[in-house]
Design brief:
about 350 residues
Length: about 350
């Protein structure tokens, strides 16, 4: 009997998801003669027992395969809901679809939920890590992170010219939740002068002193500050009219710097928001997505379950999903080599 596997995307979207789907469908169909069903909107699709048959050429346009470079996800995704209170209904949907196995593409939160469903339903399940936050443990790369970094770096390149033209301090707020990987990588690659991440405390006086040093010692009359959305309130925070939850960390830093400098700095704030999630996946994300998708299918063929594909030392490995979740979300260590690199280059990163 022909094996029937499902694939779904869960959580926030990111570039490279469709490349994973493409690899899974092509490999499973061409080399194993399996049937692949796309589950729309993650567990919502399982809840209603809905599926879309996926075939190699079903989405081709006159022979053109759009999935490799298309952003987002053709299956749709959700990052909200009451999944764990609907376990029995979801398991019933899985049985109705008569699936033999499931591949789930998600971040640490989505993978944790899918793992609970796997255990409850005794599913054969393989997870594929994706997130622009890069906070999934035991893997050196995840799908979507590289493209998001490139998107932020492009924005920083553009803002640098405007900052230099007007002698301004440009504050750029980026995503990342409680982890600073996105701000750290993009900040270094984009030439930031200050990088503020959730894992490292800082002071407003320290930032002001660094900006002063740039002006007086380096003849730099402008500056680029990258701040992660989850960065903490400064250790020496002054009273401002804006609290972080209501206006965001970028605006908070701007208000604090105006107060510290007695309004001597010309400051502008940019919040990149969901721009970071969009766009055509980079070459690296396409390669990682394709390798992850291919390996996930092979793991199912070998009878593996409860595993996640991970990029380690230049190749894809299967790791315990339980172990991954026990160490996620992965945060930036204070002695991380990129933190040390940033400080060696004169970038202010806090205390």
């Amino acid at each position: 009997m022909q094996k029937k596997i499902g694939i779904l995307t869960s959580g926030g979207d990111c570039p490279g998801l469709n490349a994973v789907i493409r690899a899974v469908v092509n490999h499973a169909t061409l080399n194993y003669n399996w049937q692949v069903l796309g589950i729309p909107y993650a567990t919502k699709g399982l809840l209603s027992a809905k599926a879309i048959p996926l075939k190699i050429h079903s989405l081709n346009l006159r022979g053109i395969d759009p999935l490799l470079n298309m952003g987002g996800t053709i299956l749709g995704s959700i990052n909200k809901g009451d999944t764990l209170n609907q376990i029995e209904q979801i398991l019933a949907g899985y049985r109705t679809l008569a699936l033999d196995a499931l591949i789930g593409i998600g971040g640490d939160g989505s993978l944790a939920i899918l793992n609970q469903l796997r255990i409850a339903g005794n599913w054969q399940f393989i997870g594929i890590p994706k997130t622009i936050d890069n906070d999934v443990a035991i893997t050196e790369h995840v799908v979507g992170f590289d493209t998001a970094v490139n998107t932020i770096v492009e924005a920083l390149n553009r803002l640098t010219f405007t900052a230099a033209s007007h002698d301004r301090v440009m504050i750029v707020e980026v995503m990342g939740r409680s982890a600073g990987h996105l701000a750290l990588h993009a900040g270094i690659a984009g030439g930031a002068d200050v990088i503020l991440i959730p894992e490292i405390p800082y002071t407003i006086k320290g930032i002001c002193a660094h900006l002063q040093e740039l002006r007086h010692n380096c003849d730099r009359k402008f500056a680029i500050i990258v701040v992660a959305e989850g960065a903490q309130i400064a250790d020496d925070s002054a009273h401002t009219s804006c609290s972080r939850p209501s206006c965001g960390m970028g605006q908070y830093i701007a208000d604090e710097l105006r107060s510290c400098s007695h309004d001597q700095l010309d400051i502008r704030t940019s919040v990149l928001g969901h721009i970071q999630r969009g766009g055509i996946p980079s070459a690296l994300d396409r390669l990682i997505a394709t390798a992850f998708g291919k390996t996930a299918v092979d793991l199912l063929a070998n009878g593996e379950t409860g595993k996640m594909v991970a990029w380690q030392s230049g190749r894809v490995e299967a790791v315990s999903l339980t172990e991954v979740l026990a160490h996620s979300p992965l945060r930036v260590a204070s002695h991380h080599y990129l933190v040390e690199t940033a400080r060696a280059l004169g970038i202010y990163m806090g205390l």
